[in-house]
Write a structure and sequence with these properties.
Layout lengths: L1 E2 L10 E4 L6 H4 L3 H7 L2 H8 L11 E6 L6 E3 L5 H4 L3 E4 L5 E2 L1 H10 L12 E6 H5 L22 E6 L1 E4 L4 H15 L3 E5 L17 E5 L23 E3 L4 H21 L1 H4 L7 H11 L19 E2 L14 H8 L19 E4 L8 E8 L3 E10 L2 E2 L6 E2 L3 E9 L2 E3 L12 E2 L2 E2 L6 E9 L2 E9 L10 E9 L17 H9 L18 H9 L3
Length: about 525
C-alpha cells in the first residue's frame, strides 16, 4: 500500500452517502443471492469451474464520501476479506468506514464478491477525486482530468451522492464523461435511494447509473438545469435494496468481462472490444427483464412497436447478467455495413463498434427459421465534452428492426408488424437519451435487418457507437459441442473442453459418461462451425 500526504477539502461541496448506513446489513445482498441474480451460475455451467473469470489482472478505483474522523476506506488490514490485495491511497490518511467496507465486500473482496481476484485497488475520497486528486474541478477550464494513475484501472465505483450546488456540477459531469472516453473507463455509480435525484455522476451521459432490483431507488428523469434534461436513469439494476451496494456488483461484472477481453485471443486482438460504448451495449443487451419490465411501446395503431423511451422507467435495461453479457461479448465483433447489400449475416449473439457518420446508416442481417422467444438489441454512444468543458456534442441515432423482402427493407411499425412479432418494440427513437433498446418477443420466421440510423450532425468528433444483440429461439435444441452457448462450435468451445480434459465437468462432458475425453472431442469436432 502506498500513501500520499497531500489532502484537501472543498468547503462548498455538499456530499452524502448513497445508502442509509443503519440499514447496511439488511440491504446488502449476500454472495449466493448475487450469484443467482446475475447469471453467475449459468456462466459457470457453460464455462466450467476452472474457466470462470474472476477479475484477475483488472485494476479498479473505489471512491467514497468521507464520514466522521476522515473515514472513507475499507478495513484493508482484514486478511480474510482483503488478503493478497494491493491498496493504493494517493491522498490523505483515512480511517475505515463501514460503508466503504460493504462496498468493497461486493466489489472485490475474497469472500463476498463475484470478482474476488481483483487485487489492484485505488482508493479516493470524493472531494479529492473531484478536485486536485483527479477531475480538477475548480481549476482552470483548460486543465483536463489527470492521466489515469495506473493503466490497469478499468472500472471506477462511485457509491456516493453529492453536489457543489453551483455551476461546478456541470463541470464535474463533463470532466467525468471526458475521462470515461479518454481513458476508456467503465464508471459505475449509484442513483439516490428515494427522494430527489442527486447531481453528479448519476446524471452523466457516459457513466453507468445503477439502481436496485427492488425498485426502491430514485428513478426520475434528469431534471432541468443539468445537461441533457429528460434522459432516463438508471440504466441497469443489481440485487439489493440500497444503491451503494448494488453499484459495485455491476462494477464486478465489468471487471469479469474486461478479464475475458484480455485473455481471449480474438477479443484481445480486436481494438474495438474494450471500447466503453461496446461495454455499455453488452451490459444493457445482456440485462434480464424482470416481471413487469417494459419500455412502453405502442400496442396498437400507428404507434404499435415504437417507443421514444428506450428503457424501463424504474429498472432501466433490467438486471445485470454476466452470463448473457459474456455470450454477447464472445460472439465477437460482426461488422455492419452502410449499404444493405453488404450487410453481414450475424449470429445469435455478438456486437459491433460502428462509425455512424451524419445522415448515414449501418445494417446487420439475420434469418429466423422458427419463432424466436426473445430478441434484445442495445445501442449506446457517448457525448463528447469540449476540451475547455464549456460545452459538448452528442449524436442522435435511432434503432429499428425491419423485415427484408426481395432485398428491400419493410417497416414493422404499426399494423405492418402484425403477424411478424408478438410483443415489444421494433423501433427505438429517443431524442435525448444516448441509448436505444429493442426488446422483441415472438419474432416469426423470416429475414430481418437491424438498422442504426443517425438523425443529426451533433457530435463530429466521436462518431462511434456500440451495438450488441442477443437472440433466443423457441424450440431449438442446443448444439452438441457449443459449450459456451453462443450458437457456434468453434475454437473457444475447443479451448474450454481441453481445459476440462480428464475431469467430470458437466458442461464439457458432451457425451455424458462422467469423463471429458476423446468421445467428447469427437462430438465437438463433428459439429465444428
Amino acid at each position: 500500500m502506498t500513501c500520499h500526504p497531500d489532502y484537501r477539502t472543498l468547503s462548498s461541496l455538499a456530499l452524502g452517502l448513497a445508502a442509509c448506513l443503519g440499514g447496511r446489513l439488511a440491504a446488502q445482498a449476500d454472495i449466493e443471492t448475487v450469484k443467482q441474480g446475475v447469471g453467475w451460475y449459468e456462466l459457470q455451467e457453460r464455462l466450467g469451474v476452472g474457466n470462470m473469470p474472476t477479475g484477475v489482472g483488472i485494476g479498479v478505483l473505489q471512491c467514497e464520501a468521507s464520514g466522521s474522523n476522515n473515514s472513507w476506506i475499507p478495513d484493508i488490514d482484514d486478511s480474510v476479506r482483503y488478503g493478497g490485495k494491493t491498496f493504493t491511497i494517493p491522498f490523505g490518511n483515512p480511517t475505515t468506514s463501514s460503508h466503504a467496507n460493504t462496498v468493497a465486500l461486493e466489489f472485490y473482496s475474497n469472500n463476498g464478491s463475484i470478482a474476488p481476484a481483483i487485487d489492484n485497488i485505488w482508493l479516493y475520497d470524493a472531494v479529492t477525486f473531484l478536485t486536485n486528486g483527479y477531475l480538477k474541478v475548480g481549476e482552470a477550464s483548460s486543465v483536463p482530468p489527470i492521466t489515469s494513475p495506473d493503466p490497469s484501472i478499468r472500472v471506477h465505483n462511485h457509491s456516493w451522492i453529492g453536489q457543489f450546488n453551483n455551476p461546478n456540477d456541470s463541470l464535474a459531469l463533463r470532466r467525468m464523461d471526458y475521462l470515461s472516453i479518454r481513458d476508456n473507463i467503465l464508471v459505475v455509480n449509484g442513483t439516490n435511494n428515494g427522494g430527489a435525484a442527486a447531481h453528479m455522476f448519476a446524471h452523466g451521459f457516459n457513466t453507468l447509473t445503477v439502481g436496485c432490483d427492488t425498485g426502491s431507488h430514485t428513478s426520475t428523469d434528469v431534471p432541468d438545469g443539468i445537461d441533457g434534461p429528460g434522459r432516463m436513469k438508471p440504466w441497469i439494476v443489481a440485487p439489493g435494496d440500497l444503491t451503494s451496494y448494488t453499484t459495485p456488483i455491476v462494477g464486478a461484472v465489468g471487471a469479469m468481462l474486461y478479464q475475458v477481453i484480455e485473455e481471449d485471443s480474438i477479443l484481445a486482438d480486436d481494438f474495438a472490444a474494450d471500447r466503453i460504448q461496446v461495454m455499455h451495449a453488452c451490459l444493457l443487451a445482456g440485462a434480464t427483464h424482470m416481471e413487469g419490465w417494459t419500455n412502453n411501446p405502442g400496442v396498437s395503431g400507428d404507434d404499435r412497436g415504437t417507443t421514444a423511451r428506450p428503457i424501463d422507467d424504474v429498472f432501466g435495461a433490467g438486471m445485470v447478467n454476466v452470463d448473457r453479457s459474456h455470450r454477447i461479448l464472445t460472439g465477437y465483433r460482426q461488422i455492419g455495413a452502410t449499404n444493405l447489400v453488404d450487410a453481414p449475416e450475424i449470429s445469435g449473439a455478438g456486437w459491433d463498434w460502428p462509425r455512424v457518420l451524419w445522415n448515414s446508416t449501418k445494417h446487420w442481417r439475420f434469418s429466423v427459421s422458427s419463432p424466436m422467444e426473445e430478441l434484445t438489441v442495445a445501442l449506446a454512444w457517448q457525448r463528447v465534452p469540449t476540451t475547455t468543458f464549456t460545452g459538448y456534442t452528442l449524436m442522435d441515432i435511432d434503432l429499428e428492426l425491419f423485415r427484408l423482402v426481395d432485398g428491400e427493407l419493410v417497416s414493422m411499425v404499426g399494423d405492418a408488424g402484425l403477424g411478424h412479432f408478438d410483443t415489444g418494440n421494433v423501433r427505438s427513437e429517443s431524442r435525448v437519451d444516448n441509448v436505444e433498446l429493442l426488446s422483441i418477443g415472438g419474432l416469426q420466421p423470416g429475414d430481418y435487418v437491424i438498422r442504426a440510423q443517425r438523425q443529426s450532425t451533433g457530435d463530429i468528433q466521436n462518431t462511434y457507437a456500440g451495438i450488441a444483440w442477443l437472440m433466443s429461439d423457441l424450440g431449438s435444441e442446443p448444439i452438441a459441442g457449443d459449450i459456451n452457448g453462443d450458437g457456434t462450435v468453434d475454437g473457444l468451445d475447443l479451448s474450454i473442453l481441453l481445459g476440462a480434459w480428464g475431469t467430470d465437468d458437466p458442461a464439457s462432458d458432451i457425451v455424458p459418461d462422467g469423463l471429458v475425453d476423446g468421445g467428447d472431442l469427437a462430438a465437438l469436432l463433428g459439429n465444428w462451425g
